[in-house]
Amino acid sequence: GLNALDHPRFDVWVLNCTLPESAQPAETAASE
Q1: Are 17 and 9 in contact (CB under 8 A)?
Q2: What's the CA gap between 2 and 4, in Å, rounded?
Q3: What's the angle, vertex CA 11, arms to CA 7 and CA 1, rounded to 5?
């Protein structure tokens, strides 16, 4: 199954899904 330990990007996914857009890093906002 899918495990955070097996997929390091899972942490990034959680941050992107839980944090408000205003809290995202400048890089993420600039890339859009």
Answers
A1: no
A2: 7
A3: 35
According to DSSP, residue 21 is labeled: G
Note whether 2 and 10 are within 8 A (CB). Answer: yes
In the chain, the largest separation of any two C-alpha atoms, in whole Å, equals 33
pTM of the model: 0.26
How do residues 3-17 score in pLDDT, each as one tens digit?
656 667 777 777 777
Q: Where are the alpha helices (DSSP H) in 1-32?
A: 9-18, 26-31
CA angle centred on 29, ends 24 and 17, rounded to 5°: 40
